Amino acid sequence: MSTVHQGIPAASPGAIPAGSLKELIESSLYMPFPFLSNPHEAEAAAGVDTWLRTWGLTDDPAVADMIIRTRPAELASYNSPAVDSGILQIVANQIAYQFVFDDKAEEVGRRWPDRLLPMLCESVDILRDGRRPTTPLGAALADLHRQVRTRCTPAQTARWVWRSCEYAHGLLYEAVAQAHPASVPIGLCTSIRSLTAGVDPFYPLYEAAQSHELADSDLYHPAMPRLRRLSVDAAVWTADLFSAVKEQRAGGIINLALAHQRAHHCSLPAAVGLAIRQINGAIREFEQLYAEIRPELTPAGIGHVDGMVGWIRGCYHWSRTVPRYADARTVPAPA
């Protein structure tokens, strides 16, 4: 059973911003979903540490420190509060893997661009064609694929593979955009961000978490693609608010708040305010659309969409306190 935490305020749209950028976000962001966490979080955290060590991903002290500051099991707990311990462990492992892979791809893309394509192609070859891995990251991905196959049906696994390949492709698009930042408008930024978010691959795991497989009427409901897109965007855009200072200092550009800052030539707090308006609109549209179609869904379909809700809620509460985004607490916002 998931746990409801009282005393953690949800942001209200009418509150008056004050103090830091973090406080501005918390006072203005619309977050209608209550905070929940998974009771197996500590177990998942221990499992992540063991899994990363097994594949040598934390042999580098910088990577080990990044994992400490990122808390992947905490994010998994917050966005997957109702899943069993087995699914939670896969979610936590995958989150950890994607943080390691994403940071490595960013470093390679900036310092050695010619090495990025082979790195991303190895991932696609492992996922699509079952090729033997040649790097520690590839070996970890192959094992993650094995874990997914143990809990997912072949069709669910195929969806996981397809969306994981899209994530890898997104990192290549990001590298291209990073080389020409002046030519990246907001729409292009959000298109790339929806791929680099890496959220879509988790949704087949929420299919597998249901007691019954999703009916075709759930899986292929005309509204389902829109719900999925809204949930991914709302989740990752919310993380963008809290990570904007970190990304700006690192020279990143695929971030919703920074895209608004470039487009409107405004301060970062003003850009964050514009991004919040866009996120609030996405969350309200998701709420309305889900309420409209919920009576048409089976219990398994409802559970699947609740997994999408989890990412919206979980990314917000995780981003508020995770050390990776602590810089948001240091930047003042206008009163």
UniProtKB/TrEMBL annotation:
It comes from Streptomyces cadmiisoli. Signal peptide: none annotated. InterPro entries: Amorph_synthase, Isoprenoid_synthase_dom_sf. This is Sesquiterpene cyclase. It comes from the Bacteria. Transmembrane segments: none annotated. Pfam families: Terpene_syn_C_2 (PF19086). SUPFAM superfamilies: Terpenoid synthases.
